[in-house]
Amino acid sequence: MASPHAVSDAQKRTVHVDATHVTLEGTLVVPSHARGVVLFAHGSGSTRFSSRNRYVAELLQADGWATLLVDLLTAQEEEIDVYTREYRFDIGRLADRLIGATHWLGTERETADLPVGMFGASTGAGAALVAAAELPDRIVSVVSRGGRPDLAGAALRRVRAPTLLIVGGHDEPVIALNEQALQQLQCPVRLEIVPGATHLFEEPGALQAVAELARAWFRDSLGARPSERDVSA
Question: Strand 189-194 to strand 163-168: parallel, antiparallel, or no bridges (unpaired)?
Fold first, then answer.
């Protein structure tokens, strides 16, 4: 999996994000003249160092998007979760922290005036959709990679941000869950199935396809929002 070219003029720094009475560690990259910022919500058992999310983030940075990859669990919670898995499916907790991170982006000089997109993977996608439902005027777009949008529950019907659901063609259980969520989402939404890909998009070219779909979606979401519900497979 080749990494996209680094952005030479981007500012990259480790940040401490105040989010709902907890401080989270993250990595913020802001290219010059950034057009928006994408907040990444990683999946269960993952961190901001996820190679898959970093790959997508680097492609978005090259396209002029700032990115924030943040650990949604504290170090102590991570240690507990390794054994109990009690936090990775706590969608309310994860969503609250994404909401806190979104508010934090609004306080930072480089990102305060930028529209916010969400890129969620696995359980992180469910949390991203809950956050989007709670902050309809701040979060303008959502992309889900191999996500569990069903975990957003009743919040799905309140999401207003244009939403792209990306699923691997061989990830049949998750395809079914995304198709069910598709029927509940009232926002502009599209389902894209990457042929031959499994849940982690490890096959040659699969993750690149995800990154390019996400890039195109975020580009379109910055302009006029579509008024019709867009559904395709």
Answer: parallel
Burial profile 157-166: b = 16 or more Cβ within 10 angstroms, e = fewer: ebbbbbbbbb
Q: Half-sphere exposure of 27 toward its Cβ, with a 13 Å CA cutoff?
A: 14
- Confirm if 162 and 141 have CB atoms less than 8 A apart: yes
CA 177 – CA 149 distance, rounded (Å):
8
* Cα gap 68→62, rounded to integer Å: 14
**In the structure encoding, which two tokens stand for residue 214, read together?**
């996400």
What would the pLDDT profile of 101-121 be if each residue is shown by its tens digit? 999 999 999 999 999 999 999
pTM above 0.85, yes or no: yes
The answer to whether residues 178 and 154 touch, using CB atoms and an 8 Å cutoff, is no
CATH number for region 11-221: 3.40.50.1820
**Token pair of 197, please?**
């890909």
